[in-house]
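If your schedule permits, I should be very grateful for your opinion on a structural question. What I wish to show you is a protein chain and, alongside it, a tokenised description of its three-dimensional fold. Would you kindly read the sequence against the tokens and tell me how you understand this chain to fold? Here, with my thanks, is the record as I have it:

===
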Amino acid sequence: DFEREVEEEINRPVEELLQEFADPTITSDPVRMYLREMGNVELLSREGEIAIAKRIEAGREMTISGICESPLSIKSLIDWHDALEDGRLFLRDIIDLDASYGAGPDMKDGAPAVPKEKTEKDSKDKEEDESGSGDDGGFDDEVAISLTAMEESLKPAVMASLGAVKDTYKELAKVQAQRLTTLKKGNKPTEASNKKYEELKRTMVEQIAQVRLNNPRIEQLLEALYSQNRKLIACEGKLLRLALDSGVSREEFLNNYYGRELDPNWLEALAAQKGAGWKKFAAREDKIEEIRADVNKISQDNALPISEFRRIVATVQKGEKEAARAKKEMVEANLRL
């Protein structure tokens, strides 16, 4: 089996191994190739481990920051806030309890003390378990009590952060709606509108950063974002194929498309351009407008201009890639050991 092959490989004469490592064309054996590849990976120092851990965290923060610029994600966070308030969800269903405990904005100096009555009960249960007088469920009860105590201590800060997000989004949603209406009329948002939008968005991202979401919830938000992006890619792919079939180059199409995704006068402006390709493309108006209606719906569903939605997706993907690359380096260095 694989382990036996690895052991045999390790016990081979050093001279033979050195000859093969010097000439990578000698063998195509997967075990030897694996060992050679792992041998080329540098061992991590303590400083190296810390640096990679920081890169993983930076990638994660970039991903979450990008996700939380999406109004769809904000709506999910507000739904979770309401579900927590109504008792339909536990705090553990939304946040990473272990990472959050003692690290929230109101807990800078360590985790808040567990209520005295719970502490005394935990101590009593522990003594009973050590003396053998407790029942078999003692350990499970202790874990449940610990989780409950952690949730009770964290919930006020989490609810306050999510409540602040909810309040900020009410104001942000109005600005977003105004911006979309302006773009759909073929106009550009005012400088004052852009400034207000950026300020509110920055405030909300900072508020969300106080909540350490658990991985399942992050994956849920990612899937919702990527699902919308797949729809957009499909629509834009159809438009591009129509352009190519009409004799319009890819570069020319993209130059005239990006930034005007919601412009109601876009097709009319293209028909007036020089070149038979554009006229042929504009002649397929019914099909084009059908596809653009789908693009418009994606924009409406996400409460974002398409260019802004595309930027958010790119930010999230970049964060994921950087975190994944750092994790790969960490895993390979550990395998080298």
Notes: Residues 161 and 207 are 6 Å apart (CA to CA). The chain is about 75% helix and 0% strand.
